[in-house]
Every structure is written in C-alpha cells, then in structure tokens.
Amino acid sequence: MFTIEHDMDETLITILNEEGGEDVSVLMIGGNVYLRQWNEKRQRFDVIQMTAQMYYKLMQAWKLPEGTYTLEMNNVNT
Known about the structure:
- The chain is mainly beta and 78 residues long.
- It has one helix and five strands, in the order βββββα.
- Strand 2 (10-15) and strand 3 form a beta hairpin.
C-alpha cells in the first residue's frame, strides 16, 4: 500500500510497511528527490538525496536485466 500527496511544489510518496517496520517516503521537491526512513534508534530520518534524473534511472533499472546501461533523457520531463 502507498499514498501520493501533492502540495504546491512538492510530491510525497509514502510506501507503507505492512509488516510492521518503518515506512519509506520519497519526497520530490524541484529537481531533487529524497528517500527517507525513520530510524527509531537514532530518533531521526535516514535520508538519501539524488537528482530527479538519478531517480528516473533508478526506476528504469528495475525493468532491466543485469548489465551496464546509458539512458537517453530526451523525452523525460525533469
């Protein structure tokens, strides 16, 4: 299960952990994407930042077999 929320200049996707662990959020603001997950031990979010292009490549990588790839970004709005 996941939720998608749009607010002015940002989008928040939350993937709910249905097995009882911490949820994962994807926060998109401008040209940056932040993956975050609450760290109970540290009492703060663990965060990974990447560009929108890097996030797009990550999403495309799930569809491909093992190998090395170069993606053309001509038709992608970032």
